[in-house]
Amino acid sequence: NNLHNANPKDSMPFKVRIGINLGPVIKEVDFDDRENYWGDGINISARVMSMAKPGQILVSKSYYEQARLSSWPKVRPTIKVNHVGKWWTKHNHLIDIYNVYDEFGDIASGLPPADIAEWYEPFNHPMTQVVTIYEDMMNDLVESRRSFRAAMAAKRLIDLVPNHEGATKVIMSISSTYHRLTPGDEKLHNPFFSPLSPSALMHFFSNADFTKFKTGKVVVKQNENADSMMIVVSGEIIPTIAGNRIRNSELIKFDDREWLSFQEGDIIGEMGFFNPRGKRTATLTAYQDTILLIFRYSLLNFDPKKNYLDTGTQSNRREIRDHIWQYYCRRMKQNRLIQHTIFQSLSELEKFKLLKLSKFLPKHPNDDLSLSLDDIRNNLIIVISGSITILSTKNKVTEYTKGNCLGVSNYILKENSPYSKIIDFDARTHVILYPWDYVQKLTQSNFKFRNDCAIIANDERLHLGLIL
User: Fold this and answer.
1) 103-141: b (≥16 Cβ within 10 Å) or e
2) Of 107-121, 165-179, 188-202, minimum mean pLDDT range
3) N or C: which end of the chain has fewer CB within 10 A?
C-alpha cells in the first residue's frame, strides 16, 4: 500500500482502513456447499475497522493484550501504540480501541497520534453514540409493540439523559391513564406497569436500578432481610426453598416447564416488603447471565403526617405501594393453593375456582385486619402472616399463626361454632378467606380433601379445648 502511494503521479492514492481483533472464527458449509466464516474474530474486527479513518490501523483490547503491543515500542521505538478510548458498536458491544502507528512501516504505517485527536474527539464523548443506539432500539421496540423491552430501553435512556423527552413519553405511554388522556397516540400495554399513572411510572423508573448477575450467582438467600423488589430484564432466575426447586403449577405457569423459574418481565421479591419480619421467602439464583431492574423498598416508605416529601412524591409512592400490594395479594393467594398441605389433593381446576372465590385481608397495605366471628363461621381462613388469638366456647385461648387454618371445625364436624371471641390480632396480620359453601362442595366430591380437613379440624378442636 505504501509502495503504491509512493508514486502518486502514476496512479490515484489508495488507502485502506485496518481493524484487528483476536477471537474465534467458525467455518460452516451451507446447503449449496458454500463455505461461510463467522465469529468474533471476523465480526468484531469488522466493527473495529469501521471506526478507522482511511489509512489508519486500529486494534481491539483483546489483540492489544494477547499480542503484547505495550512492549512493541520498546523493541522498535518508531512504533506508537495509543489507547484512544471506548466505542459502542452494533449489538451493544463496548470495545476498547488502540491506535497503532509505525513511522517506517513497509506495508502500512497507520496514522500518527497527532492526527487522531480531532478525528476521534467522539472517543472522549461516547455518550452521543450510546444514546443514539438506545434511541434506535427503543423506537424499533415501540414500533413492534414490544412494550416491556421498549420500557427497558427507555429506562436506559433516562439513566443516561435525565428528562430525555422521547424516553419519558414512551414510559408514560404505557400507562392506561395516558391512553385515556391522549386517545390518538400509539398504545403500549404491560400487565404490571399499565395500571399505574404516568407520574407514578416515571417515579418508579427514575428510581430503579439495573444490576447484572453472572450465571450461578446467588441474588438473595432465603431468610435474608428483604429490601427490594426485582423485575427480570433478561436471563433467568431459579427460586429454591430449603434447597429444593419449586414445581410449576397451572395457577402461575405460562409454559410447559416442570419447574418454576422467573424470566423476562417477571416480578420477584415483592413479598418481603409486606412480610412482617421483612425476610426473603426463597433463595434466588441466576440460572444464566441475568439483568434485574431493582426497586428499593425505602423508596416506597412515607409518613403522610410528615412533610419531608412533597405531595407529588408522596402520592406516587402511595400509588406504587398500593399497586404492588395488589400484586402481592394475588401472588400469596396463588402460593397458598400451591404449597399448603390442605389443598394438595385438589385438582388444578378446583384450585383455580378457589383462587377466584378467595379474598385477601386487609384490602390495603398497613391497614389493620378487620375480622369478625361471622367471617370465621362462613370461611376457611389461612393465616399468611402475624397471628390471631381466639377464645373458644370452652374458655381456652388459642393463637393461630402463619400457615394455621382457622374455621375448619365449623362444618366438617357438623357442630356449633367453637369460637367465642376474637381477642387480638398481631400487627400486620394477613389472611386469606375461602368461602365455606364452595369448600363444602369440595369435601363432598373429594374424599382426600375431606379427610385432610377432618384431620386439621380434630387438631384444632384439641387446641380449643373441645377434646379432652
Assistant:
1) eeeeebbbbeeeebeeebeebeeeeeebbebbbebbeeb
2) 107-121
3) C
Residue 425 class from Cβ within 10 Å (0-12 exposed, 13-18 middle, 19+ buried)?
middle
Mean pLDDT, range 442-455, rounded to an integer? 89
Q: Determine the pLDDT at residue 2.
A: 55
Residues 295 and 6: their CA atoms lie apart, in Å, by: 62
pLDDT above 60 (res 206): yes
Name, in order, each residue with C-beta under 8 angstroms of 46's C-beta and a sequence gap of 6 or more: 19
Give me the phi and psi of 457, to 5 degrees please: -65, -45
Cell of 309: 416529601
DSSP E strands: which ranges in 336-448?
A: 359-361, 379-385, 387-392, 397-401, 405-406, 419-425, 430-435
pTM above 0.70, yes or no: no
pLDDT at residue number 308: 52
- Residue among 439, 339, 441, 335 at smallest CA distance from 381: 439
Angstrom distance (rounded) from CA 324 to CA 216: 28
Q: Which cell numbers in the block locate residue 433?
A: 378467606
Q: Which backbone phi and psi does 83 adopt, to 5 degrees?
A: -75, 125
Q: What is the total residue count of the chain?
A: 468
Q: Say yes or no to pLDDT of 199 above 50.
A: yes
Separation of first and last alpha carbons in the chain:
103
Residue whose entry in the numeric block shows the C-alpha cell 381456652: 396
Give the residues across from 320 on adjacent strands: none
Beta strand pairing call for 18-20 and 57-60: parallel
Contact 167, 154 (CB under 8 A): yes
